[in-house]
From TrEMBL:
Organism in which the protein naturally occurs: Nitrospira defluvii
Protein name per UniProt: Uncharacterized protein
Source organism phylogeny: Bacteria, Pseudomonadati, Nitrospirota, Nitrospiria, Nitrospirales
Record-linked InterPro entries: Multihaem_cyt_sf
Top-level lineage group: Bacteria
Length: 80
């Protein structure tokens, strides 16, 4: 199989698009981070987050908050 010039241009463009998308900021970077205190570091399972982040808990979620259980998908842990 022989490569034509147009094939190489296509491959280069495809790589640029994939690389560009990969570098877009993740929405996770903009959401509030999970605080790095002991209460949060003790939690290893996402369903345990709801011990406090329920309407009757220590820190209820805002009314507009997404009703999803994969908390860490959107909230990164603070590094350190
Ligand atoms: C022991 C109770 C408790 C548990 C369990 C808990 N949280 Fe929290 N969380 C709090 C309290 C209290 C605050 C607000 C005060 C603070 O910043 O510590 C808070 C604040 C937050 C904030 C907001 C930080 C900000 O900048 O406003 C996020 C995001 C958060 N928690 C996510 C989580 C996630 C994700 C989990 C599960 C891994 C979790 N929490 C488990 C009590 C808890
Ligand atoms: C789809 C993405 C997404 C998921 C999944 C998600 N959150 Fe959030 N969360 C957000 C966004 C965006 C905000 C900021 C909302 C705002 O500022 O109005 C937020 C805000 C918060 C806050 C701060 C509220 C405050 O008082 O300022 C806490 C606490 C929190 N989320 C906890 C959780 C927990 C616990 C879970 C899992 C049950 C979870 N989040 C799942 C996107 C998400």
């Amino acid at each position: 199989m022989t490569f034509r010039k147009v094939d190489i241009i296509f491959v280069v463009l495809a790589l640029l698009v994939v690389g560009g998308v990969a570098l877009l900021p993740s929405p996770r970077d903009r959401n509030p981070k999970v605080p790095a205190n002991s209460a949060h570091q003790a939690v290893t399972m996402e369903k345990d987050c709801l011990a406090c982040h329920v309407p009757t808990g220590a820190r209820p979620l805002p009314v507009q908050h997404p009703k999803r259980q994969d908390c860490l998908h959107c909230h990164a842990r603070v590094q350190g």
